[in-house]
Amino acid sequence: MDQQPVLDVKNLKTTFSTERGKITAVDGISFALKRGEILGVVGESGCGKSATAQSILRLYDEHYTSYAGEVWYEGRDLLSLHPTDMHSVRGNHISMIFQDPLSSLNPVYTIGNQIAEAILIHKNVTRREANARVIELLRMVGIPAPTQRVKEYPHELSGGMRQRVMIAMALACEPKVLIADEPTTALDVTIQAQIMNLIKELNKKFDMGIILITHDLGVVAEVCTRVLVMYLGQIVEEADVHSLFTHPRHPYTRGLMKSIPQLDCDRSEPLHVIEGMVPSLHKIPQGCRFAPRCPYADDLCHAKMPALEVHGNGQKVRCWHAEKITQDAKVTHA
Asked: Where is pLDDT greater, at 260 or 220?
């Protein structure tokens, strides 16, 4: 795998202007995505996963949004590009699959026209060539009878079919980076497995860098190579998949792991839950943002924000007590 990152995000901050004042939904996110890698991003709802993805592509209305930091792609900082230049990046070099395909697809245009639009905008091809490419894409993502499906409208397709159309649309211009934002939300388990297998196959075929946003740790374990754990707009842990699942070092990550139902567990015991709720961005706690919900929190945690530091075998953890928690976990397992 090429070690040169295809996407390099440095200290990304996204601030929204609201009626109640300014809020920073993405606060100092840094990571690198390698070509051919599938990077998982996990965390509860409201932790900033989707905001991070949409900030990379500058999808928010910039009248009410300010970006800071750097997002490097092929020697260019995307945050400093003119809006016109960003149009040539979106859907061409970097594509995104959104959570809900029905709300992302235009109900009054056929799926063939919607996929062809991206090809005609970014590639120097005729309409006939674009239409042929659309049929090829639909066949590639596993849609049967593609020559018939191109004439159909979104409401005529099942949820799984619509998600495949979104994947075809995202791949239309052969991007180097694909961002998949909860691509299996609202799909039944069988279709979820099919969509994730398709994403894995396409990753191998095109050697794309993929950012997979999900709340499903089972999907992360099966599909991803590396994981970012986010909490309240920050990365609290970063590790390769094996290290994260065998030795989670942040209390929040450990809480997420414990919340996964186990087949061999005592069914009379209640499932583990992380106490409390993700705080509002209008009322971010002082010190460590997870401290109000953390069983290990002390005065230092409530007073001072920990940095994201390297521990052990290269895992990055934002916690004052990461080493102690790891030692306690070893003693418990022993």
From this structure: 220
State pLDDT tens for residues 150-191.
999 999 999 889 989 999 999 999 899 999 999 887 778 888
Distance from C-alpha of 197 to C-alpha of 204, rounded to nearest angstrom:
11
Q: Are 77 and 85 in contact (CB under 8 A)?
A: no
Of 257, 204, 270, 229, residue with least CA distance to 36: 204
pLDDT given for residue 4 in this prediction: 83
d(CA 45, CA 118): 30
- Own/partner long-range contacts of 292-296 (Cβ < 8 Å, ≥24 apart): 293/252, 294/251, 294/252, 295/251, 296/251, 296/321, 296/324, 296/325
Burial (0-12, 13-18, 19+ Cβ within 10 Å), 42: buried
Is pTM beyond 0.85? Reply is: yes
| pLDDT > 60? residue 330 | no
Three-state DSSP class for residue 209: strand
Residue 268's alpha-carbon distances to 258, 265, 274, in angstroms, are 16, 9, 19
Alpha helices in the chain (DSSP H): 49-56, 83-89, 101-104, 111-122, 127-140, 146-149, 159-171, 189-206, 217-223, 241-246, 251-258, 299-303, 322-333
At 37-91, the pLDDT tens digits run: 999 999 998 899 999 999 999 999 999 999 999 999 999 999 999 999 999 999 8
Fill in the amino acid letter for 284: I
